[in-house]
Specification:
Elements: E1 3-9, H1 22-30, E2 33-39, E3 52-53, E4 63-64, H2 66-76, E5 85-94, H3 97-105, E6 108-113, E7 118-119, H4 121-126, E8 130-133, H5 143-154, E9 187-188, E10 191-192, H6 202-220, H7 222-225
Parallel strand pairs: 1-2, 1-6, 4-7, 5-6, 5-8
Antiparallel strand pairs: 3-4, 9-10
Helix pairs in contact: 3-5
The structure holds adenine (ADE).
Amino acid sequence: SPWRATILTLYPEMFPGPLGLSLSGDALARGDWSLEARNIREHGLGRHRAVDDTPSGGGAGMVLRCDVLAAAIDAATVADDPRPRLLMSPRGRPLRQERVRELAAGPGLLVVCGRFEGVDERVIAGRGLEEVSIGDYVLSGGEIAALTLLDACVRLLPGVMGKAASGEEESFEGGLLEYPHYTRPREWEGRAIPEVLCGGNHGAIARWRRSEAERITAERRPDLLRRPD
Ligand code: ADE
């Protein structure tokens, strides 16, 4: 059974969005994964299908109601749904490639996209939502974060990516940033391709690439050298 993603959002029109194109779009069309975007507002209350309310204790903004979101989650899942339930939020655990690998190896995902100032805390615990952040900046909603997370997962599914980029040699998969890439012409605007890449010494090329990857990682992301991943 294909990897199955269910998205709960107030903007289902944002899906599949860019995931309907290119690698992920082709894989979607092949049935290598599936995507279902469901509108939380279908579980809204009253004539206006209200999904949010003012924050208890006062303050600005609106809070997504726990009863509404719980109804949306319950309608989108089965009793023993094996899929992790994520809530996209800047408060969440920072997403890293190791977690992406785990999620891609599983049965799929239920992803809740937050909007407004937040989600009632009780439904996070009550429905076992794991909060995930894609970085230390604030988006206007969880949808673009969910698209990012899905893209990272889908490209790792069996058969989605060609052998060229099957992942292993890429940034983070080896724990290092990527070495520099070049292609023809051999010289361009006074800049030449490093000589070692123009000979056929594959051992020398592999050593050069490794040392460049280490140099660039030390320069730009020294934190990665001290992290197991
Ligand atoms: N929603 C708003 N900002 C976000 C972020 N940085 N990561 C995940 N979800 C978000």
